[in-house]
Amino acid sequence: MDVTRQRARSDTAKAARRTAIIEAAMARLDTRDLLAVSMQDIANACGLTKPALYNYFQAREELFLAVYRRLLRDWLTDFNRSLLAAGHPLPRATFNSLFVTSFAARPLLCHLTNHLTATLAPRLTASSCESLKAETSDQLAGLRALLVHYGYADADDAGDLAWAYYTILVGAAQIADWPADMARMTDGGAQASDRTAFEANCLATLALLK
User: Fold this and answer.
1) What are 170-189's pLDDT values in tens digits?
2) What is the pTM of this model?
């Protein structure tokens, strides 16, 4: 039985329901533009009433932020696995390529990143904004540690370099305005060309960093 159809009483059940809601939102966002997905759509997919859904997320933007954070963590986990498989030492050009192509292979993450500043952030509560800042800080700390580990920067300079990597990627994703649907990203059409251009532009810019 779908966990969202059961009344959540324990903390474990509530956490499971929250996860199920996030996954339902991800499924909707995989095929539809963020602005076209409503809380009612997600409530229907979960078998919940709309008021019950608001018990877990105060607004649509809060839910989409939770999806974004989940996708971001999954991407960085996979990126770290790719680095481990590539070995050490690792040419910086290879590091950059894995960084960019692993991100570009996740169209939903790119799609949400595109909407992060213009659509999501202005509508978040103060606590969610702080949560997003903390999440970004944590991810930058992880990237900073990787840059030091591979010898691309010393401890004093790695923070600025990590921020440069992050801003290049986010800025390019916001300009690209990709759809969430992977099929439209890989069918040889305009979006696939945009992805290729995105990767090339990011790599060219990253190569300029000291």
Assistant:
1) 888 877 766 555 444 444 45
2) 0.84
In the prediction, which pLDDT does 191 show? Answer: 60
For the domain bounded by 60-208, which CATH number is listed?
A: 1.10.357.10
Read off φ and ψ for residue 165, nearest 5 degrees.
-60, -45
User: Mean pLDDT over all residues of the chain?
Assistant: 85
Q: Is the pLDDT of residue 157 over 90?
A: yes
In terms of CATH architecture, what is 1-57? Orthogonal Bundle (1.10)
Per the CB < 8 A criterion, the answer to whether 94 and 146 are in contact is: no
- Enter the DSSP assignment of 32: S
Residue in the block written with tokens 């809060």 = 62
Same fold, 1-57 and 60-208: no
Q: Domain-by-domain residue ranges, the chain?
A: 1-57, 60-208
